[in-house]
Amino acid sequence: MSADYDIDSIKDLDGISHIQLRPNMYTDTGTELGCHHIAQEVLDNCGDEAIGGYCSKIIVELESENVVSISDNGRGIPVKANQDGISGVELVLTKDKAGGKFDHNAYKVSGGLHGVGITVTNALSSWLEATVKRDGGEWFIRLENGRTVEKIKQIGTCGPRTHGTKIRFSPNPKYYERAKFRVQQLRQQAMDKAILIPGLEVVFKAPGLEDETFCFKNGLSEFMTSRMEESPMFEFSGQLGDMEKVHWFFASFAETTPIYTRSYVNTVPTPRGGTHEKGFESGLLKAVREYIDMRPELKKLLGKKTRIAASDIMTNSQLGLSVYIQDISFEGQTKQKLTSSEATKFVGGVINDSAALWLNRDAEISDSWMKLIIERATTRTAAESGKTKKVDRKSFTGRTPLPGKLLDCRSNDIEDTELYLVEGDSAGGSAKQANDRDLQAIFPLKGKILNCEGVTSTDAANSEAVADLITAIGTGIGENCDIERRRYGKIVVMTDADIDGSHIQTLLFTFFWRQMRPMVEAGRVFIVQPPLYGVTIGKQKHYAQDEEELDGLRAMALAEKKKIEYIRFKGLGEMNPPELKETCMDFENRVLVQVSPEDAQRMDALVTKLMGDDAGQRRDLLMGKEIEEARFLNIPDDQLFDDPSDVTDDLDDLEPRFTPYESGNNAIAPFETVFRELYRSYGLKVVGDRAIPDVRDGLKPVHRRILYAMEKLQLRSNTKTKKSARVVGDVIGKYHPHGDSAVYGAMVRMAQPWAMRYPLVDGQGNFGSIDGDSAAAMRYTEARITPIAEAMLSSDLKDGITPYQPNYDDQDKEPMLLPAPFPWILMNSSTGNPAVGFKTEIPSHNLSELLGACIALCKRRSRTGAGASNRDFALVRKHITAPDFPGGGIITSSEDELEKMYASGYGKMLLRSKWHKEDIGKGMWQIIVTELPYGIEKSPLLIEMGARISDKTIAESRQLPMISDLRDESSAEGIRIVIEPKSRNLDAEQIMLHLFSATNLQVTIQYATYALEKWMDAPNGDRYRLPSLFSLDDMLNSFLDNREGIVMRRAEVRLAEINKRTNILEGLFVVYPNVMEIVQTIYDNDKPKPILMQKYGFNEEQVIAILELRLAQLRKLDEMKLMNEHAKLLQEKAELELIVDDHAHRWKHITGELKDALARFGDERRTVVDASVAKARTMSKQQTVAREPITAILSRQGWLKGMRSSNVDLKGLKFREGDRLLDAAAGHTTDMLVLIGRKGRAFSMLAADLAGGRGNGEPISKSFVFSINEAPTRMVMIRDDSEYLVVTTAGHAFRAMGESMLSANKKGKAFINFPSGSKLLCIREINPAHDAFAFIDSDGRMGVIAKDEFPLIAKGKGVTAITMKKGSKGLRDAAPVTIKDGVRVGTEKRATSIDEDELKEVYLIPRAKAPRGLPMAAVNGVVV
């Protein structure tokens, strides 16, 4: 490089030199496009001539592999010289930025950009020859290496109409890697011009091949159609525009088809697409989305979480797109990709408008295509939710889309890494401090994940918790699950060793089996079982997996005479990180079990039965013999079951085979076994220990523990309240080791008088409201028990009377039952749904009725000396009417329905609000609702009702158009909801019946008396309880049996106390007369006890009491008191012995207790039972709108509207340009408008729903779905309860009820079967007085036929009314008539009357006979 830099260093290159110096700036010099680009430049010039209409033929000839000749019969390049003496041909070929396309005079649209196109062809060719014919001469010029070697010269003559240009050239190998033409590529370039310019003839010639001529009269559409092998599902084509225009052809196929796209701009191929293709996709996408939004059924199918993308539409499609625009820009001179931003908006707008119209042309085809698109979108969304990029470890810079709570490991070696799925943040905190940071990742689960049985991959991915799990694991789900994309070698499930832990494991395993089965089948899923107890013996630390291991450690400690201490781990969060590491995360010590299915079919059946919708299957599993007699399966498949997929059959002969978690590190457990045992464990625990009440005291464990904790805190009804947080803390700390929110939620409900018929907790502060407001936090509220709850916590709450059990950590004890003095199971509504088949729904009842029934049963037992009897049910039903709800209401079930429900323990009833009509003067009125059904929150109910007044997207039967306003005027005095009708002419009763049908002002109350009572012992030593269904008398008898046991135990405990006390008193009675001697004996002897026992005959208890006696108590007055006490005790003892020994006396005593409770707590019923009330039903639309005259107007272009008048000037109506009236029908807003299609389908809508009459109305396709051949052409207003005469022009007729023409389906219904060549003549209403039909044909003949000769049918062709002459144009008119009134035939201005006699004599004919001629004055008339 020279160091000199002066003026000589600066080069001023002309266009040719610059192109040759930097060819890559202007063309593609590689092997893919190469020299074909400079041939395309010449072809584009020819195409521009054809676009302008100046060229009809182009010839492309490949003379050799490196010589091409391209000619056209266009105008020819100008040959005249400019002011510099350079001819037009030479100027175009040698000067860049020279051409005729910089304005829009010579070329309106073209592919030229900046005048360098053909100049590049010349510059990069070894030689180029141009021959031009124009102006009567033939001209020639030759250039070599871009420079002119032969100036323009005339070489011949031609006719004045002969013109055109021919360019021959040879690419210069100096600039191209391959300066040779490919036959097929050049052929395609030639054919593209013919495709894009309809009618243009393009001839292609090549050595060794026959000449080919391409010509497509219909252009792009013809070409695209010719290459399709199968018929498309949806086809969309068109051409729009003048100067700037779009020509397109789009076809979508149902089957898998390679995507084929050919796009052009101003005839220039754009193989890399560009903004015009983007515009097409965006326009079509917008039209598709709008179409789906207009179709509720499609919108519902799409769902809220899925959005249509362009790829969903373009899949399996073929697109041809040609765009002509004036100002264009490409990406580079090769013009392979359009970059004009205007093209997106222009093409998108054209396509959107056209596609919207096209989609509505044939809704049936469009709907089918939409469903296919929605299916693709749903599949894509599911796939995207499972997509994971490369295995990157989590960072906090936002570069990895991993869940926020995931603590990732460091290692990128997938096989050695593990992902621990732990239960919640508390366990996650311990696990994150205990894990191996290199190999163990921790993902805390957010609560219980979605049950994935019967759930699609899309729905599963829409769950936030599942979506995070999918992202963390990385394999995707469903059909897109690919274990090669996993982020970890093992997935380890680590949950608490309790009910919730078992449930979470079953949900996780359901997820893995249904959505990530390849991970399970590949052995990538494991369980680690944490210990249940931490045990310290002396100074040694041990762990116990279950009660059995704990008993073994206890025995060891006893044998070694060492102190033993243990703690029960409620959850992983209670374990210190070192403990968790040692037991669950240490590679050497942990017990890791790999789950692997033995039989996929059997596993499928097991998951379906245990996690599916059929709760009965789960109930059968828990109640089956296999719970007691076998835990695992070990027999040949052919001996297993008749149905190899049945997993709940009797398992009497099966032997245990595998016990999970007992086989050491990394054992393999059958997935079926693990899943089955997990579910059994969860099911038995949740049923027996959490969700189901005990029939004897009517309480669930959480309620029992809350009351017991409040009793221990001395929170009596007459004491000062204490903070709710104190109560909750004692409950979860001592008895109920679960979340504080669950305990506080139960406590809040116990204090709500609208939720509990007899509240148990007296709350101080905000304990929520019937409006659905939440209670204040537990740190703010205070509470104590109510008097009725205090009665349950009586003196019977002590050992020997009430059974107790150790609490969860054996540090305290809690009552197994409370000594309920009432049948609490029926007093307060009790619900429990453990989701294993035992759903409890026991509504509240009136205490007075319940105690009355119990007293009657007690009297019968006392009288007969027997226990429960089969006659108890009838006795009980005399006292118990029906459930009695806290908020009152009206039960509408019949006595028989209630009887059956109470006898079986299962059923349902209807409960509706109480209301009345209130007059407000001037003929106006309003509805007042004063009581709501049980369980309905007031504010949400009113909000929902308010939305239904105006929201038209809600199902029609759920809308409330008859209401104008809704107000809440409730106060402390009670509920007052005001409902104002839209019109005072409406019926209040009908409105309320509609509200009962459409809203929660009426609800269905379920009744299922599943409750716990007896314990069952399994052969393996386990004890469990399963619920049973109780009839009404069974529940009361269970309560009474329990009450008898309490009374007996109370008497026995009290007798023991009395015997002990009387024994002591009898010893003291000996002391008083011998007091000085006894005192002296005690004073003189170190061991006076045996001396006193021998001398005075005292027993052990008496001597101890005497020795502990104070001398001050030996006064004479005290002796008198003791004697009175002794007498009373003996009297009480006699009473208690009668209670214990005498059956009748015992039940009289219990009767007395119940009567005392009745006197203290009895009250009146709140809920009314009335089976005579009308059933709920919806109001028809006709009942909800005001009756006004209306005229329906239908235009020829399919626009429909309604004008609120019966006298519309049809001639004066204005329509859109080019549109006019097709049909009109007058009626009332309460009528139904029926539209009859070309093929006889009937479409119907309420006349009041017609679009307003001031504008153009709405397209009929917006209201109905039909094909072009079925478009409605006729209209009629009808009433559903009226009868109509239906007549076709071919002379067929039948009778039909109005309701037979109506259909809620937007696709209408088949109604008239038109004979060939006929159409609808009329549909006329038949009045009760009409007894015949008059028919007039086009020949002026009339026949009157009796009405009864025509069938009353719902649809069809009808029967022949009259026979017509050959060649007749058909019927002219038909109408129902009354024979005795005669008929008038003619026009409105002039008509002829035919009386009854003449009708009968001349015109009354049998059906299907020839009619009679009319008088000359009426021969051209109709029935007036």
TrEMBL record:
Segments forming domain Toprim: 417-531
Supply one GO BP term: DNA topological change
A GO cellular component term found in this entry reads: DNA topoisomerase type II (double strand cut, ATP-hydrolyzing) complex
State which Enzyme Commission number(s) the record gives.
5.6.2.2
Which top EC class is given?
isomerase
Q: Which CDD domains match?
A: HATPase_GyrB-like (cd16928), TOP4c (cd00187)
Catalysed transformations (reactions): ATP-dependent breakage, passage and rejoining of double-stranded DNA
Supply one GO molecular-function term.
DNA topoisomerase type II (double strand cut, ATP-hydrolyzing) activity
What is the designated name of this protein?
A: DNA topoisomerase (ATP-hydrolyzing)
Organism name:
Mariprofundus micogutta
